[in-house]
Amino acid sequence: MLSYIARAAARILLTFLVVITLAFAATRLSGNPIDYIAGQGLTQEDRALLIRYYGLDRSVAEQYLAFLKSFFDGEFGLSYVERRPVSVVVAERIWPSLQLLLSSVALTLALSIPLGVLAAIWRNSWVGSAIMSFAFLFYAVPNFVLATFMILVFAYWLNWLPVVGNGSWAHFIMPTIAMSGILIAGLTRFTRNAMLDVLGQDFMRTARAKGLTETEVIFRHGLRNASITILSVIGLQVAGLAAAGSVVVESIFSWPGIGELLVRSAILRDYPVLQFGVIAVSAAVLLINVLVDIAYGFADPRIRFGKA
Amino acid sequence: MKRLLVTTALALIAAMPAFAQEITVGAANVAPYLDPGRDHSNVGSQFYYNTFDVLIERDYDKLEVEWKPGLATEWSIIEPTVMELKLRDDVVFHNGDRMTADDVVFSLNRMYQASFPPYQVRARDRLENFDRAEKVDDFTIRIHAKREEPLWETLINLQQVMIIPEKYTKALSGDPEVAEDSDFEAFSLAPVGTGPYRVAEFVPGERLVYERFDGFWGEKAPLERATVRRIPETASRVTALRTGEADIITNVAPDQLAMLEADPSVKVVGAPTALFHVMIMNQNHERMKDARLRQALSLAVDRNALNEGLWLGKAVVPASHTMEEFGEFHMPELNTFEYNPERAKELLAEAGYNGEEIVYDCQSTYYTNGMLAAQAIVEMWGAVGVNGRVNVIEEWTGGKPEMMVRCWSNPMYFADPFGSFGVMWAPQGPSESEGRFNTDEEYAGIWERFRYSSDTGARKQAYGELMERIEQDAPFLPLYRPYESWAMRTNVNWAPKPGHIPYVLDFRAGSIDFASN
Predict the structure, then answer these.
(1) Taking CB atoms and an 8 Å limit, are A82 and B32 in contact across chains?
(2) A234 lies in a domain?
(3) How many domains is chain A partitioned into structurally?
(4) Residues A291 and A179 in one domain
């Protein structure tokens, strides 16, 4: 188990270094931030003055080294526009993003696994068809369309739900649904398929033959064996959600999270914040992958011992 | 019974102030820092006037310039280059410090003798003529100009020379006796002024909370609390107004107006912004060198059609680089720019234009309708035989030699042609130093008279001559003044004031109140 975790950690470290370098390189391709920080109408002389002041006159290699170094002082550099340490800017926003992510994952798990199991068991009845039709519908609707539609109906017309920020539990409803809509749809389908694969296996017949109730058969033998497939799908989808979904949904609902921050820093060319934001999201994706890897080990002992 | 009615009425009146006057503003953007000195952005200028004061105020209800005492009670020119100002002696900063001449001298010299690079940059384009401020006594100061200054009051009324506390600022970091760069950086996150609202909470780029400052020297602020929060998505801003999460929203897009105007719970106010969207042309690009080609590219643009198509006719198409806000310097009679496709065709033929591609650079979403205007302009060029192409580019290309034509804007930083045309098109100014605009001795000579003549007639004459040069050299075409709208709940009475620079959210006494329902 330990060597298993160690190997996973080494892989992550390497990925992380690649991510850091890519984040640094990609941000430098998008123009000089001075044009965004200082606004319009600078003479070349003044532009040069500000470029020096913000340390943008240093060579790319120097900037890269300073950037790596900033990881060790724990501040991750200074935001060009806000003039605060990046760590402070990002720290304000981690919790709101995490809250939204967790509520979305919770809603996804709470709905899609039971729905998927039901759809598998009742695959030949109208219940199964209805569940799958909804799943297809939600799978096809992008989150910004779903979000805008909900805003129109529940906020603009009915005036039931708030649209700005994360002030109360009611603020969570629409963003959570917008974030998890596509996840619920995807995971319901995968759960159904994974269950269908398992339901036809020999050991299921054996379980029934030894006198277990149908519920025990489905949950102890069926779902347990389907869980590996389900886990990897959750891992992939939640990782994708942390990276992309939050950017769109947080912007629409003015959610003070990392995704909204990323959009703003990209517009303002606030490299230090943007770089770190990209890295933070990548770290979240990596972390989710590790958690899934570890969870595999629990779900399937063969993986734990490196035999799979 | 009568007595009961009277008591009830009295009780009601007594209870009225208990209604906390609070509002929430949903803004497309909240400033990432708050320092009136270094800032001249459209986002930032929304926020300073509530918190900071200038020495000389103006009546913002009027378009015509009328100066009023601000932190200075009186002022006079005591020598051709020296102005003396008497200060109010009852002014307190939000941190409790009493304002004296030291604070005023500090605030002015932070710009006039700037050592902090962001201040140096802002001072250079508009405050270049000011040498220093000095203290005479605790409530008297003098400002020394390098040359005779025709725009004294205008340039003392600027946002950049709003007054900040000396002691507080210097003590923000490092040595409390010295003004270091880091002090000014820290100030921009914890701003303190003398205005009717103090900044109670500021999350950069996200949220700003104003609270009434009871120690304000002037008329009491009408609101107890005003929260400005960022709502970047237009649809969410509009919805926030409906759900009651916002009382006022900024930057309402032209295509949302009809829907909002149809809603009885909401009202919309708007005005043409004191800012031009412009099309700039590179005089030094090999393909663009012939002035006749540039003139043709300008004459081919039907700006009224752009206004009708993109702004529902609400934008203002200028005859020259001039605005009503310039007061006596508003000179629409100059007729510098016009639409004349026939003349454009002739000029193209004279210039020997042979179908070479002309590229129009523009960001995708930076300017409202900017990309649509770019596409329409290229079509209009096509109608006179120009082979144009829109190049969507997020980067600022105005300083690149390969730039041919691009979208830009010329804001009015203060109400004078110098504050709009002047900042961008001065000899050695931004446009020339970026290598896309050329001036010569003649231009510089006219410029001198325009900037420094003490006689209004002479300045107007010179401005007219500058516009003739612009017509000949065709370095740019002002397209229109965009129309900006704000929407609010019907019980809120607020509107942008004509005397302010664009975008100011003025919540001072007399600028906002609530209709009794």
Answers:
(1) yes
(2) yes
(3) 2
(4) yes
